[in-house]
Structures are given as structure tokens and as C-alpha cells.
Input
Amino acid sequence: MKVGCCQLRFHLHGNNSLKGKRKVVSSMKDRVRGKFNVSVAEVGDNDIWQSIEIGVAAVGPDPQYLDGLIRQVVDYLDNLHLAEMTDCKFELIHVGHEYK
Output
């Protein structure tokens, strides 16, 4: 089993409340869930008005597919222009178990 995961950071220009931030984060998560078969959640910077940290994860057997899927999600979020992407970290993890 392979797990593709990505941590994205965004800067939310001109925002001055947590309510405004929650609206943007909610929109980002809902749009990604509606378009892609991935898990998405706010994973950090919860109390910082102008900073958004989102995690995206997908599971499957094919690392090339997962890589392409996560890249599509990253491009999609960047092209929404709801906030400025400032950082993106991707990791592909091989999960295996050994029976003894």
C-alpha cells in the first residue's frame, strides 16, 4: 500500500478574523472533496488569521497515480486564488506489514 500526502501552506491577504479564515478553509476543503477522491483537513495554524495549513492524503497501490493525483490537487488549490500558496511538501510512503 502506498500513501501520498501533502502539506500546503497559504497566506490569506487582507483577512482580519477567524470567521473569514474559516470561510476560505471550508471552501477549499469542500471543493477538493467534491472534485478529487482524497482526504483533506486543516492541520495547523488554526488560530492564525492570515495563515492556512492544509493536509491532503490519498491511498492506493500505484505511486505514479498518487503522485499525479496529489499534484492535480495542489494545482487546483493554487488556481482557486482564494489564498496565496507559500509552501508545499509532498511525501510518498510505502506501508507494508510483515507477518511472523
User: Anything to note?
Assistant: The chain is about 35% helix and 35% strand. The chain has one domain: 2-94. The chain has a mean pLDDT of 92. Strands lie at 2-11, 39-44, 51-60, 84-94.
